[in-house]
Amino acid sequence: MNKVIEVENLTKRYGNLTALNKFSFSVKEGEIFGLLGPNGSGKTTAINSILGLLKINEGKIQIFGKQMQPDAYDIKKDIGVILQNVAVFDSLTVYENIDYFCGLYVANKETRKKLVNEAIKVVGLEKYKTFTPPKLSGGLLRRLNIACGIAHKPKLLFLDEPTVAVDPQSRNNILESIKKLNQQGTTIIYTTHYMEEVEFLCDRVLIIDHGKSVAEGTVEQLKKQATIDEKIEVEFDEIAENKIAKIKKLPNVKDVLVEPQKITIYFAKENQNMTKLLELLKKEDIKANAVNLQKPTLNDVFLEITGRELRD
Amino acid sequence: MIVFKNYFKLLRNAYLTIFIFLAITIFMTVIFTMQTPPQEEFQTMTPIITVINNDDGEIAAGLVDFLSEKAQLKDLAEDEIKDELFFAEIAAAVVIKEGFSEQLKKGKEPKIQIIQSPERVSAINIGLLVNKYLNLASLYLQTDLEAAEIVALLEEDLAEEVAIDFQKDEEEITALDKTTVYFNFVGYGLLAAIIGSVAFIMRSYYDINIRMRSACAPISRARYNQQIIMGNIVLATFLWFIFILVAYLFFGNLLFSLNASLMIIQAFVYAQVALAIAYAIGIFVKSSEVQNGLATVVPLALAFLGGAFVPQFILGENVLRVAQFTPLYWYVRLNDMLSESGINSNIWQEFYLTIMILLLFMVIIYGIVFFLQRKYLQFIN
Amino acid sequence: MFYHVFKYRFKRLLREKTLLFWALLFPCILATLFNFAFSNFDEMMVFRTIRIGIVENKEHEIKYLLEDLEVEEREIFSVQYLSEEEAEEELLAGSISSYLVIDEKLKLVTDRSGYDQTITKHVLDNFLQASATINNLMQRDPQKANEILLEGINLDKEFVERDLQGDNNIMLVSFYSLIALGAIYGGFFGMKTINETEGNLSAYGIKHVIVPFHKIKIIFPSITVDVFVQSMAMILLVSYMLLLGIDFGDYLFFVYLVAVFGGVVGIVIGALIGLSSRLDAVKKDNILSAVGFMMAFLSGMVIVNVKHWVQSGAPWLAQINPANLITDSLYALYYYETMDRYYYNLITMGLITIVLLIVISVFVRRRQYDSV
Fold first, then answer.
1. For testing contact with chain C, the best of A89, A99, A150 (most C CBs within 10 A)
2. Which residues on C lie below 8 Å from A81 (Cβ)?
3. How confident is the model at residue C356 (pLDDT cuts 50, 70, 90)?
4. Disulfide: which of A19, A278, B57, C241 matches A45 by Cβ 3.0-4.6 Å?
């Protein structure tokens, strides 16, 4: 599979501060690539560098197999960008906004008209074609922002936190649209703080911190990297003391927290912990009301690797 | 008190804007004050003129001599006149045609040409002097006296002056006059500085998101406004103080004559009125561009109409009638009175009256703002 | 591409009210204001009644003169007869501007030399001087003197022919300066364009920089819109002033020309200020407002004399201040018959514009930034 983006040893310094430190990664054609990192990790700097906006100190950036430069217009025509800051014109309508930005890429009026209407449909703004941004809610604005970035059907799309402060309906719409775009062949670089989105969308994920890549792989691979425990909660009306002792003796049990009507069992990561517990409960005739399994989440992974929460 | 304290944090952010407004208005104030001529016992500014004398008669020569005492004569060729007038290097050009004295002797009324650019008011005086000289000369010319003798006599006559008894100390008067000019201009400067600074800060406080957020905070709207007003008052007082400081740098201790002290006090009250106006603008105007516009237009408008730039009696009745509805008119009026009179019961009366009127303006403006604020804010869900 | 960018920017500008306010409404409001405030200005000294006192220790004919003197059927003096103590009091209180003590000699007592006192002194001086002349006449040629007295002394002969260069409007320079102000405030358009096309200034800038062509293809049409809209605004402003009755002389075409050109200079100035990445948008707005106002002030907008002081005291400043160049051009157009000075100013403005454009293009050419 082709590598759409290849970044090698990207280094960018702002005075004494090194924002990107020999940062390397690559993105394959047709994948949705998640770029995660706490605030100040270098995410945005990386994206801006890749787009050719920033002067870099060291490193090689290739897009579509060609060296990326500010005047690489043949590369740029296939790139779309949706920035975190909504940049649409308040005095133009939804349709006009999309038409304007699309028109910077597509000269032909007929083609463009089709593309703009398609984009409006994709983000679900048909009812708002003649509205101006001040009249739109936050979620709708972001949808508009996205439409402006995808209208010209770019092969490579950058999305920087597109769902911040967005209502659930819009969020849903956005995520679905992105999936659909990807299915149509668009390669997507996606940054976000929302773990659920990463799990839903991303084929591969890279965690960046202090300007360096600290973990890379599929979501499953990353989760496996976590060394933290599995947690199973059991809720019941009452349980005998000796039964608790038996639970403690299960294999892989690291610790048991006993509370009235609930015990939390910490297992070392291993498959089949749940099965073994359920067998024990049945055997000992422990009447459980609820059994909750919490596998380590991406947030846990993130926390472990970077020392900070995803949603910082 | 947190809103109040926060005010000063916002202030730190705004200091560039405030500095710009202050610097400009002080700069303008200084220039304006400097242009006032010193009042040295009727020594009016001697304008610079040029005289082209194409006549060889003695009367004409006598006229030129006379003019040289009243104005500064500059030697120019006739084709240089137009340029010199354009650049206001000279106030006027006086041209005496050939044969002038002859005509005069015959009892005719030959004309002297005075060329002036439209805006040079000081040239008017030259015309008056020329007419005076020639009218008196005409009287003499009706007799048989020789031209040379007439010129000598005229010199004598025109040296006559009424004796002047100057009651006040020259320095004091000049200072008082300049102080008046300064404080009148401060009517503009203070207004501009206050509107610019206060409206700017208030925009942060009354931005709708912040307003909504603070509507949820455990502080009543009244107290919120109160504290902001307190912050405003401190700022306005600070700006007033800066202007007084600059005045002190200019006038030194002469600033503390009784009359000038009253001007200082009035300026303080006026600052609070200016604050009310700024507050109104800050509350009701959202966009920074419109605010900027108002911060320029409103002070200029009030200043022109109220007589801060041009003396009130020149403005004309229509203008003054409109101006009476603005605080600046009353402010300038009192300043002018203070500059002309000594301290007596009449002046005290005027002083209190004006202060009352200014405070009334302030109350009315705040009143309107609060009333509208309550109505307006109800529309925010 | 040009048409596409042009069309949308034009639509936007027309719909965005605040920008239009600055460009057009604001100078018009000031023009109306000036017109109203100056409506009473006359070439002659404006008269108000001068309150004086007379301490009559002797009979003297001066008092009749003072009582009767009028100009255009308005009495110049309002006379009060007082004792010496009363007069002193009244003077102190400010209810009279001066008082005349009629004794062996005439003495004018006053405490300042303002308008009123100066006029009073001049009237008295004129009287004394004329009296001296009459006396001399009596001595040298009594017969003739009597003849003259019988006929009535006429001292009102007019020997002066005023040649006013142009019409009577003392405040023309103020209005011309106002046009300069309007022109410089075209800078807001230029600032906005730069803000939207530089990657380190706004998200709009970023969007305009990652396009698959050189951003000059966005800047050029945008500036064209700016020039077009600002030119319209300037034409409207000049036309409005003509409507108000401001005299620009006979060469209206050139008036419009310099106004429009001045607008272009303003746009370029605004663009230059807009380039700074250290200041936020609001601060840049304020700076342009302040700079524009200062430039106009120094070209005579508020106090006409300032223009002349700058010209004599700091001529280099007068040469490079765009507002002054505009004001000066308009005044030259009005005042001179030849176009020399006008063209000279126009060329200077052109040079300034070119220099500024060079500076701007150095920054605008870059396509990568140190930080965005």
1. A89
2. 206-207, 210
3. very high
4. A19
What does the DSSP 8-state code read for residue B142? T
Q: Name the residue in chain A with its Cα closest to that of C371.
A: A54
Residue C204: closest C-alpha in chain A = A87
* C304 and chain B in contact, CB less than 8 A: yes
Please give the Cα distance from C220 to C226 (Å, whole number). Answer: 10
- Which tokens go with B200? 């700017």
Question: Which residue out of B106, B119, B337, B338 would a mutagenesis test of the C interface target, given it has the greatest number of C Cβ atoms within 10 Å?
Answer: B119
Number of domains forming the structure of chain A: 2
Least confident of B29-33, C185-189, C318-322: B29-33
- Residue owning tokens 């401190």: B234
Residue C371 in tokens = 């930080």
**Beta carbons of C259 and C232 less than 8 angstroms apart:** no
Residue spans of the domains in chain C: they are 13-40+171-365, 50-151
Give me the CATH topology for the region B48-158. Answer: abc type-2 transporter like fold (3.40.1710)
Shortest Cα distance, chain A CAs vs residue C205, angstroms: 9
Examine the predicted complex and report whether its ipTM is higher than 0.90: no
3-state secondary structure of A291: strand
The verdict on domain C50-151 having CATH code 3.40.190.10 is yes
Domain containing residue A162: 3-224
Where chain B has pLDDT below 50, the residues are 379-381
**Whether residue C222 has pLDDT greater than 50:** yes
Q: Any CB–CB contact under 8 A between B172 and chain C?
A: no
- pLDDT tens sequence across A53-96: 999 999 999 999 999 988 899 999 999 999 888 999 999 999 99
- C-alpha B194/C-alpha B243 separation (Å) is 12
3-state secondary structure of B324: coil
Q: Given the DSSP bridges, would you call strands A79-82 and A156-160 parallel, antiparallel or unpaired?
A: parallel
Say yes or no: A67 and A110 in one domain: yes
CA quadruple A175, A180, A183, A184: dihedral positive or negative?
A: negative
Minimal C-alpha gap between C207 and chain A (Å): 8
